[in-house]
Amino acid sequence: MFGFYRIASVCPTLKVADTEFNTDEIIRCGFLAKNEGAAVVVFPELCITGYTCSDLFHQELLLKKSFASLLKIAKAFDCSDMIVAVGLPLRMFGKLYNCAALLQRGKIIGVTPKIHLPNQREFYEKRHFNSGRDLLSTNSVKSGSYGKAPLTYSFDGVGEVPITNFFMVNGSEEIRIGVELCEDLWTAAPPSGELALAGANVILNLSASDALVGKGDYRRNLVMNQSARCMAAYVYASAGVHESTTDMVFSGHLMIAENGSMLAERKNYSRKSEIILADIDVQRLNAQRLSEGSFQDFDSTEYFAKAANFASLPVVANDSEKPTEGLKYRYIAPMPFVPSDIAHRDSNCREIFNIQCAGLAKRLESSYAKRAVLGLSGGLDSTLALLVVVETFKLLNRPLNEILVITMPGFGTTKRTKNNAVAMAELLGVELRTIDIKPSCLQHFKDIGHDAAKLDVTYENVQARERTKILMNLANKEGGIVVGTGDLSEIALGWSTYSADHMSMYAVNCDIPKTLVRHVVAWYADHVQKLMGVCATNSQDSAKALADVLRDILDTPVSPELLPADSNGQIAQKTESILGAYEIHDFYLYHFTKYGAEPRKLLYLAEKAFGAKVGEDGSAIEAKYPREELVRVLKLFLKRFFAQQFKRSCIPDGPKVGTISLSPRADWRMPCDASSADWLNEIDNL
Q1: For the chain, where do the domains classified as CATH 3.40.50.620 start and end?
Q2: Spatial distance between the Cα atoms of 570 and 556, rounded to a whole number of angstroms
Q3: Could you tell me which of 10, 49, 250, 454 has the fewest CB atoms within 10 Å of its CB?
Q4: What residues contact residue 34 under an 8 Å CB cut-off, 6+ apart?
């Protein structure tokens, strides 16, 4: 469903050279994976015999027994669509090869010989095996054999079996499987690179990598980086502690990575069989390959030809007994823009802040601006923008009183936001001016014949445009530039007034979604004493006071404050009551723009992220948002995202800080008059 496939990586217990014992354990572990709904299960290199058999690999009995074991394993799963990848020595064309065999529905679908054989220090594979390079390169475009059937070998009692490292699925462009073995990954040009360029989006690696100090971390980075480089899922299964310890120890390192992210991992020197599972998303991988990276730059026919010794899998599906609809083995982050790990989040916030400051510093220098002019509302976005401006001026060794901050109270401004804006400006040591916009707005209502009692869009937008007019004209008067405050979420939804807060001379928050803005401000509050540095008032008391103001701003409801406050003087116009929670919008924005997810999948993922679930202790966790709200917000998100493109087509310059940007000059080009009908119709048909 939606491109999700459950994958298992297994390190079974074994006895070196005891094929019967090993076979039974492989079958037992295979059924554990099958019962969890795995579509593919991967075992280590030479797992049927054990990797460390050494010269026993030349024993006739071991070779015969290992092939008989392969047939027994295949037969054990003859009623399952699950693909089983196991390692064993295979004799073909009078030579011995270290192979991976893929099994499905009781048959050997294909075998992949190892290409690169380590033969240094503790490894001496060339003593026993031959490279499979020649067997895997029989097809080529130049020779005119491109597209022909792969090289095959006729095994006794089995018949012709394809020799291939590339597996296609009949009638499906969704998933293609590539296979390499251990050392193949460690080379300068891993086969998986060419397999990925040929279309493989799931790479299986059957491995036997020994344990050395620091090698586990290197191996982990290797797998993660290769999965990112190939924009693929990379499934790694390595031999464990039951291999011979005559000269080496193996840790049983298991990994499943997806495009640079580790979905599941185990490395614990376990004495028992170990299994990890993950739900990979091949639709997501395919979408990224279309829109990111250099995949489109390569001649795919050339690389497909190199991998054209391919076998066809009848189907790659999750076992019907336990479908992956629950995504049991995949975490769907409710806030994909915000790292869940605190240290990682702090590091990201610091880097985002540094990028913002560096971008603004260059713009101030190149425009010869004498001042930075900023409208300060006491809300989140303008708060972050002011903090960026202050740190930028410190970076440029310019006095902070060259920063001009304007508060412009209107019909909806509350004491809370006004007081926070004033306090923040004073604590940071910038120049503060207050300009009441109500008289000029009332005059404008009179000029255009608008009833001031009519609280409609005109009532709101007159205020927004009056504020921007003041900022722009003051910037001209003072020889400065207007620093924009709008964030990525507002840009996506068009939640701004055209030619008002929509416009500035440099927009420092333009690539930061609302959920992340909140965390960057919180990060600043947590580190305020260090960050205030040489501020005009830098005592410990002023640092604490600023932190308190920032935390109160974080607790203030998000609002444009364009409609009058309630009878208690509190904010009446709350953005999230109108639009829905920003964290839902940001969730949809991430998966829609980055991975091209269709509406049904967006809702499916949102229900996994925000819906009811079971805690680790088995307790029920209530849904944060009901399905009805997720549907309502999804429909609103898509409507506004399509309809408001005209605002994005002419937004100001601003620094890109993440992988998602809506700049019309770089990341997102879309017709302003594109129809959203197909997307909205799919929601209506849910």
Answers
A1: 342-575
A2: 10
A3: 454
A4: 41, 77, 80, 82, 319, 321
DSSP conformation class of 653? P
pLDDT in tens, 121-175: 878 888 999 999 989 876 443 444 445 567 889 998 899 999 999 888 765 678 9
pTM of the model: 0.90
Q: In which residue ranges of the chain is CATH 1.10.10.1140 found?
A: 580-645+664-686
Q: Pick the catalytic residue: 25, 45, 183, 490?
A: 45
Phi, psi of 342 (to 5 degrees): -65, -45
**Residue 568 confidence (pLDDT):** 86
Quick check: is 182 catalytic?
yes
- Rounded mean pLDDT of 382-406? 97
Helical H runs in 367-456? 380-395, 415-428, 438-448
CATH number of 4-326: 3.60.110.10
CATH number of 342-575: 3.40.50.620
DSSP string, 58-92: G-HHHHHHHHHHHHHHHHHTTT---EEEEEEEEEE
Tens digit of pLDDT for each residue in 563-610? 998 888 898 899 999 999 999 999 999 999 999 999 999 999 999 999
Q: What gap in Å lies between CA 349 and CA 525, rounded to an integer?
A: 12
Active site (annotated) includes residue 628 = no
Q: Report pLDDT for 119.
A: 84
| Kind and range of the H or E run holding 465 | helix 457-478
For the domain 580-645+664-686, what is the CATH superfamily, name and number?
Glutamine-dependent NAD+ synthetase, C-terminal domain (1.10.10.1140)
What's the one-letter identity of residue 390?
V
Beta bridge partners of residue 104, listed in sequence order: 107
Looking at 114, 306, 418, 635, which residue is catalytic? Answer: 114
Name the residue among 311, 306, 312 with its Cα closest to residue 172: 312
d(CA 245, CA 237): 19
Give CA–CA dist 511/652, Å, rounded. 12
| Catalytic residue selected from 11, 182, 357, 441 | 182
Q: Which helix (H) or strand (E) holds 631?
A: helix 627-643
Pairwise CA distance, residues 340 & 342, whole Å: 6
Q: Let me know if 114 is a catalytic residue.
A: yes
Burial 406-423 (b: 16+ CB within 10 A, else e): bbbbbbbbbebbbebbbb
